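Translate sequence into structure tokens.
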Amino acid sequence: MSARLTSEHHPEPGLAGRRRAGRNTLRTQFALVIFLLAFLPNLVLTFTAQPNLPAGALLGWMLLVGVLCGMVGYVLSGALLRPLSRLQAEVESGDLPARTDDPAEILALRRAFTDVLDRLGTEQTRRNAFMATLVHDLKTPLIAAGHLTHALTTLPLPEAERREVGTQMQAETQRLLALVQQMADAHRFEREDVSIQRVPTDLRALLDGVARRVQPQTEWGSLTLSVEGHGVALADAQVLERAVTNLAENAIRYAHSRVELSVTPEGLAVADDGPGLGGSLALLAQPFTSQPTAIAGQQYTAGTAGLGLFIARRIAEAHGGELRYTYHPHQLPEHDAASLSASCLPTIFTLTLPEVTP
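Result follows.
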């Protein structure tokens, strides 16, 4: 009984909220302001003139003036707010055509809404790319590890083959761990600054360490890997090595025959004779944008290139530098590519540092 009485005496919040929202609209406020601006002067003039009219006639006259002022307020408020109502309908439909006949304030709102919709579209694209990365880069090594495990546990393999299968399983596990680490780094670096501790760092020793780490990948692709240059800079060696490793792995993925790591007066450079990026560095060096793309007429599947470039860019910025990209296809001759210096290789990524001492 008490619950029924409570519901009878207290209407549902949703209905009350809609009633309040209906009264508290911009058009209602505009109409009220126009009504008052039109009605109050008429009211003052009527009582100031003190016409010799009966009270009933005077009341009827004021009621007529009030109705006319209310209608004028309603019509004018609708006309004033028509561009805003049109913008609301366009935002709800997701289609914001370019218009020049709107007031300046509506044009500013239109630009703001366009920017918001563009950012939402970019976020949706990145989310899709993230799912593509998960499906492709996680699924492939997991399937391979599953096949290797099945072979190791069910097939009567000789000892040498069992060791080879175990080595392959370890390689697939390391690949999975590296991908998960990249995703975790990209997620963290996107939301917070990269924490570094600068100390004098031998850049040549750092590149030698990266070369040893990625050497097995170059052997699988029959690539030539070389390291050039010497220098010292204030840097966080562990964090900087992660950035260069990402750049080196990307170069190995796309190179035709050669990859070179070098210390330059500007910082650290990773060069290769591959086809270059399929878009601008600003567009591709973003987290989770590694969608399948066409580069120099060749189709490349989704991978972690976007993650690696984004992490390298954030690490470069944390050191006070930047990540630069240049591509000069005309510098690559058709023969004797192995004799080229890094400056002559067509694709060059440079991670700049504030000061490099030879």
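Note: Residues 104-154 form the longest helix (51 residues).
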